């Protein structure tokens, strides 16, 4: 019997976007010190800090999310 052909696994390329953040000299120094202390990179630190806001549950925005419970709906 001939050997079975296996499927080739290929990796999907993730589409990524660039973002630029301006930091002051002191902020960059603090970020670099934090990264050295925790043995990580600035990119990983920033991504970890914004990940709760970029998760799936924040993709759909709803109006009731912006209305506080103690606000009156006068014109709705």
Report on the structure:
- This protein has two helices and no strands.
- The chain is flat, with a radius of gyration of 23 Å.
- It has helices at residues 25-38, 42-50.
- The longest helix is centred in the middle third of the chain and has 14 residues, at 25-38.
- The chain has 76 residues and is mainly alpha-helical.
- It starts with 24 loop residues before the first helix and ends in a 26-residue tail after the last helix.
| Portion of residues within helices | 25-40%
Number of strands: 0
Residues in β-strands, percent: under 5%
Q: Could you report the average pLDDT, rounded to the nearest whole number?
A: 81
CA(first)-CA(last) distance: 73 Å
Rg, please?
23 Å
Structural class: mainly alpha
H/I helix tally: 2
Sum up the overall morphology in one term: flat
**Topology as H/E string?**
HH
